Amino acid sequence: MNGPSAPQPHLLEAVWEDGAALYDRRSGDTHLLDTFTLAVLHAARAVGADPAAIHARLADSGNPQEYELSRIESALDQLMAAHLL
Q1: How many domains would you assign to the chain?
Q2: Quick check: is 21 in a domain?
């Protein structure tokens, strides 16, 4: 899997209580993310796109049952398809 990546300067991020919008300055695309997918994005930037490493990082910060591996994998697929990772 991919290693950690630095924050992307071409992405502007606006966060609300129930989600976020990311604007890609290069493509002009806007991406709406729920809070779970945003947490996966931030974790993947820190530890890489490895579902087990993301699970470990997220489980330390909250309810481990909330961060099922299959859900993390689905979020990673969405983020990669949108070229956010």
Answers
A1: 1
A2: yes
Distance CA(58)–CA(67), nearest Å, equals 7
Per-residue pLDDT of 50-72, as tens digits, reads 999 999 999 887 766 678 899 99
Does residue 4 sit within a domain? no
Neighbours of 23 (CB within 10 A): 14
- Sheet containing 30-33: which strands, arranged edge to edge? 11-16, 19-24, 30-33
The pLDDT assigned to 6 comes to 52
Would you say residue 5 lies in a domain?
Answer: no
